[in-house]
């Protein structure tokens, strides 16, 4: 019986490449906010509130792309439903933020405005923990983990793989989106949650709070990146890569793929849930459209564009694609979706290792 089934592909990045990326993340997370304190507004080096919100939002997306890399790049499981876990974390945080509004809402009621408008008389049972920040943090982790655990257990135990697994993940996300659109579920219907005012009793619409949330998001991204790097370099990570390359041989070697696939599936879902919670605090809104199939597909696009099984690649992919999206949706809004589709096709056909793989090839050609 073999102890470890080794992956067939070597690393795309050298140690210096990892170090450079980690330093770049630290600079974004720590140095940029400090520079804002000493650089006057109007300077090209001063980050505006819009830039802080945009980069903070993209860092949330980068966490999702990193989660996708763990299951798709390193385990070979393509999910088209990770937008659901992102939204669940966002809704858990959104419920807390709605409770923080209190009587400052339009209807001067302890109930959220949308409940008063719909003539609700009391808080639904599933809002019971939403008044506590500690309980909210627990729900941000627990809700995606629970849904992913139940779904993944039955799917992986039934040995559903490939395109069939991708289809049912998308169906699960779409069905949940339709459920959240219904007013009677108590999640705000079409409009979702918005008009947040405070977090932990402190106002949210201030430059200092935006910068604080920006730094927290950057540090969480860095933490998840280091965790993922450690994970894929461990024996556990090598088994995941072996499952990706030859699952049958892994079974014959004495390993049960079910536990490995289910655990990494839940870990990636929790990462997306945390990203969703951070996203809501910075963007200021969460609604069922975050669960749309298109959003989940975009997460896969970020991972593919940057380079699967690299960890760094999906993070770069999230910044590249969303940076282009921010510009194109303003300059050429009617062409954005065509660009996204063409980009995914081009990467699939000509850049299977994404941007990171292309950089390595160019370095090899120069050498």
Automatic annotation (TrEMBL):
Keywords: Cell membrane, Membrane, Transmembrane, Transmembrane helix
Subcellular location: Cell membrane
Pfam families in the record: BPD_transp_2 (PF02653)
InterPro entries per the UniProt record, alphabetical: ABC_transp_permease, ABC_transptr_urea_perm_UrtC, LivM-like
Keyword Ligase: no
Chain segments annotated as transmembrane: 20-39, 51-74, 80-98, 133-156, 162-181, 211-232, 262-287, 299-323, 335-359
Membrane topology, as annotated: Multi-pass membrane protein
Keyword flag GTP-binding: no
Organism domain of life: Bacteria
Principal location: membrane
Protein name: Urea transport system permease protein
């Amino acid at each position: 019986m073999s102890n470890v089934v080794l992956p067939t592909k070597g690393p795309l990045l050298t140690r210096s490449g990892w170090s450079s990326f980690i330093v770049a993340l630290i600079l974004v997370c720590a140095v940029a906010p400090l520079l804002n304190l000493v650089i006057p507004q109007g300077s090209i080096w001063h980050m505006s509130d819009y830039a802080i919100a945009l980069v903070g939002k993209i860092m949330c997306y980068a966490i999702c792309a990193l989660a996708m890399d763990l299951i798709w790049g390193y385990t070979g499981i393509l999910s088209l439903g990770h937008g659901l876990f992102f939204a669940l974390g966002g809704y858990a945080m959104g419920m807390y933020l709605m409770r923080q509004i209190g009587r400052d809402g339009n209807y001067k009621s302890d109930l959220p405005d949308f409940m008063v408008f719909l003539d609700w008389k009391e808080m639904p049972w599933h809002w019971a923990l939403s008044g506590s920040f500690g309980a909210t943090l627990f729900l941000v982790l627990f809700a995606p983990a629970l849904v992913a655990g139940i779904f993944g257990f039955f799917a992986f135990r039934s040995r559903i793989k490939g395109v069939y697994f991708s289809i049912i993940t998308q169906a699960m996300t779409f069905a949940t989106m339709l459920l959240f659109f219904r007013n009677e579920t108590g999640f705000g219907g079409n409009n979702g949650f918005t008009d947040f005012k405070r977090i932990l009793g402190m106002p949210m619409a201030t430059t200092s709070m935006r910068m604080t949330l920006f730094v927290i998001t950057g540090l969480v991204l860095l933490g998840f990146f280091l965790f993922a790097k450690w994970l894929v370099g461990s024996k556990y990570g090598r088994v995941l890569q072996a499952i990706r390359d030859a699952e049958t041989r892994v079974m014959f070697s004495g390993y049960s793929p079910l536990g490995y696939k289910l655990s990494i599936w839940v870990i990636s879902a929790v990462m997306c849930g945390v990203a969703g919670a951070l996203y809501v605090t910075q963007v200021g809104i969460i609604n069922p459209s975050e669960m749309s199939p298109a959003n989940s597909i975009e997460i896969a696009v970020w991972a593919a564009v940057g380079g699967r099984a690299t960890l760094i690649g999906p993070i770069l992919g999230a910044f590249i694609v969303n940076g282009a999206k921010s510009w194109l949706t303003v300059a050429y809004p009617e062409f954005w979706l065509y660009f996204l589709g063409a980009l995914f096709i081009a990467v699939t056909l000509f850049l299977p290792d994404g941007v990171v793989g292309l950089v390595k090839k160019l370095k090899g050609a120069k050498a």
